[in-house]
Amino acid sequence: MAERIKYARHRRVRELFLGLESFFQRRLWPARLGVIVVVSAVALLVGIVLFSYGSTLYDDWRQSRLLRRATALLQEGKLNKASQTAQELVARHPDSLPALHVLAEAAEKQNLQEAVKWREQIARLLPADLESQLNLASAALRFGKLDVARQALDRVPSRDRDRAAFHVVAGWLARAEGNLAEQEEQFAAAVKKEPTNDLYQFNLAALQIHSRDAEKSAKAHDTLQRLSKLAPYRTGTLRALLNDAVARNDLIAADNFAQQLQMSPEVTFGDYLLCLNFYRKLDQKKFRSILERVKPVAARDPSNLASLMDWMNQNELAGDVVKWSDKLPAAQLSSTATSVEVADAYATVKNWSRLKRWTRAGTWGESEYLRLAYQAIATRQSRPRSTNPNAEFESLWRSAEQLANEEPERELALARLASKWGLEKESEELWWRVAENPPTRREALEELRRLYRGKNQTAKLYDVLQRLHQSSPNEAPITADLARLGLNTGQNKEQSHQLAKEAYDRAPNEVNCALTYAFSLSRLGRNAEAVRIVESLSPEQLHDPHAAVYVALLLAQAGRIEAANNYIAIADDEKIYPEEEKLLDEAKTNLETAAATPSPMISAVPAELSPAPTASPP
């Protein structure tokens, strides 16, 4: 009985607790659910943040690690591995400036053209940074990309264009374009900005030592003498001083410099060739003795052997090359560079049969196109000229051109060879192709200029001058030539007058620029101003027959009959250009008209404009 009562109590208590639990569950479940949702959301958000932050931290850590490794490899000289590591970083972060700098430096140290690509990317990211643009310009110059270099300099802000470093790079660009006058201006500006910089002093002095200005040349000589005492500049200054002494025929000074250069630790085989230039002038007997001692030294190395043969071919010793090559073992003549020089020697001495045999068999590797070209020349030269093209020559030359096609260095060598042997049609086509390559554009346009001037093709000549002006717009003599030809032929008259003034403003003391502007003024009806410009020039500058034509015309228009006749006499019996002959005829007509027309008394002609009728051009 007692057990039943106890069990009934337990059951009621349990039912009570179950009821209370059910009550609280009904009341608390919505709140608990809300808490769970909130906690879950917060946890998810925190997880996302932590993952993102952790990923960024890892990425930053990885980037720093790769950069440190690439930099260390670069400093250790392990350039390929440094590049690979930096490229891995750039693949993930294309705009990583530190990685791009590593890639650029590694490529430059390996002399790889990729350096230009990396420098371009850096310059794109830092468009207003002077150093980045100058580094790009320098890399572009190093690999012959003149257009890229010019564009980089054009992007330099005006506030930075008077920095010494800018002037130096601009000077080297001018040099690459063939504008030596602007190169000197830029180097002089760099020295003016940083007069204690020995490198800038050396650059300017090495250029000005060849100046016609005695004061500049003397100052450059003193600078080079001072720098020759400094180790970094010793060999370079000795080369410049030796060249200058040989050019001035100062054999005592040249002997001193030659001996110093040969004792220099940095002396090269090219320096020995430079010394040969001097010894050839000093004493033919001593020169021959030295040349015979140099030959066996050169024969030990194929590159030196080819260099010596090339020097001999360029210095009227091709016959000696032929005799020497007969004595050398075949193995020493097997290099392609030596094969080319032997062929050039045979061609120079016009031994066409031996040249044909030399080029008939074998292959010359990368110079195979020259083997075919020399064979073509030998074929044409050894047979009488006929009205019909030589089929064998045409076939061989076309094969040579195909091997050189789209290879700038090969096309240049082939163009030079074609010009040397008077292949006008072939050389013209090649020079136009060579002109597409910025590093060789100036040489190509100058060759085309000579070709068209020689054939008096003024329309084509004008086109070449336009291209020369476009590639070197600040070169005053070229600007003047373009302006004068335009005025003579009636092409782009307004532009020609403007160009004439630009050239004169840039170089008023340069006779070509001064006379072109004076001619322009006379065509605009301002002859009095034109005559004043002519009067400012020294008489020696006006004795050239081409210059005399314009002076005669201006004086004839001014009614200065006697002086005009004197300049007509200077030009009359000389070979002048067809357009100048027309101007000379115009001057004579003006004089005839002036002589037949009574005029007021003309004031005395200045002595400067009254050269003796017997004066002859220099």
**Major sheet attributes:** none
β-sheet strand percentage: under 5%
Mean pLDDT across all amino acids: 85
**Computed Rg:** 39 Å
Distance between the termini: 154 Å
Given the structure, what is the number of helices?
Answer: 31
Morphology call:
globular
Question: Helix/strand/pairing class, anyone?
Answer: mainly alpha
Short description:
With 618 residues, the chain is an all-alpha fold. It has helices at 2-75, 79-92, 97-109, 114-125, 130-142, 146-154, 164-176, 180-193, 198-208, 214-227, 234-247, 251-262, 269-282, 284-299, 302-314, 318-327, 336-348, 352-360, 368-381, 391-404, 408-420, 424-434, 438-454, 458-471, 476-489, 493-506, 511-523, 527-535, 545-557, 561-572, 578-596. 75% of the residues lie in helices and 0% in strands.
What topology does this entry show?
Blueprint: H1 2-75, H2 79-92, H3 97-109, H4 114-125, H5 130-142, H6 146-154, H7 164-176, H8 180-193, H9 198-208, H10 214-227, H11 234-247, H12 251-262, H13 269-282, H14 284-299, H15 302-314, H16 318-327, H17 336-348, H18 352-360, H19 368-381, H20 391-404, H21 408-420, H22 424-434, H23 438-454, H24 458-471, H25 476-489, H26 493-506, H27 511-523, H28 527-535, H29 545-557, H30 561-572, H31 578-596
Helix pairs in contact: 1-2, 1-3, 2-3, 3-4, 4-5, 5-6, 5-7, 6-7, 7-8, 8-9, 9-10, 10-11, 11-12, 11-13, 12-13, 13-14, 14-15, 15-16, 15-17, 16-17, 17-18, 17-19, 18-19, 19-20, 20-21, 21-22, 22-23, 23-24, 24-25, 25-26, 25-27, 26-27, 27-28, 27-29, 28-29, 29-30, 29-31, 30-31
